Input
Amino acid sequence: MSRPARGTRATHQELPPALRDAVDDFAEHLSRVRNRSAHTVRAYVTDLVSLLDHAVRMGCVDLAELDLSVLRSWLARQRTTGAARTSLARRAASARAFSAWAHRAGLLAADVGAALASPRAHRELPTVLRADQAAALVDAPTRLPPTSTPTESTTAEAVPLRDRVLLELLYATGVRISEACGLDVGDVDHGRRVIRVFGKGGRERSVPYGVPAQRALDDWLRRGRPALVGARSGDALLLGARGGRLNPTTARQIIGGYAEATGLPRTSPHGLRHSAATHLLEGGADLRAVQELLGHSSLASTQIYTHVSVERLRAAYRQAHPRA
Output
């Protein structure tokens, strides 16, 4: 087998057959048993191929020869090539997940990755909008021209209604952009004012929304969606200008365009999610409740928003207190 030159990215096909089979079986385990998304599986497989290619270079021709020194050497090489702390932490997690699976599957005599340490990923505090800025962004479709250029009069009337309900739902619920674009009409419970969301790993949760979002939904379903609906629409709640399900990339462009037109800081759908979480906590919401709303599997993921609130409080203290 010819090996790639150092510094090039290894591919699945360049590994020895036994290692290729291990990669395939691990990917199937992630997809079918762990119910991971295709994106997550690709990320794990990319890390694993890099690890196993490094192991082959170190003389490991059989998976049973993989040990902790190889894992550490692989991470050290990643560090010397300039990998960020977040990337190193993710790759270490991939190695540990594979090692644990390989041990359970009888491919490794021991879970060699269990003792693999990784650098703590430095988590920057997310940028969030103030409440008045978020309100200005959500109201932008009612005051400004659409960020896209409609081609027909019916589209011109429908697009602002679609943009408004998109912004209202994102800020009202804090859902991910992929979750919002994945909503079907039947996922909206108008009576209880909740939406049914399918998050990471297919986990289902119900998320409430308020009266402004309900008004935007009513207008969209009554006057907007019927103007865009077509053969490609299916049950999708949010539609693109050509009638298909709204694409997350298009949704990001819509939000960024309105933020720019409103004179706000550069904003993404995830920025609205950060803002919603922070404003909930600042308003007195329980951390566990916010965790459930956001669909975080770990409370640690939600706790970063408490740091945002503390930073805002600290900034206000420094500005206003005479002995700050």
Notes: Confidence is low (pLDDT under 50) at residues 1-9. The chain has two domains: 12-115, 131-320.
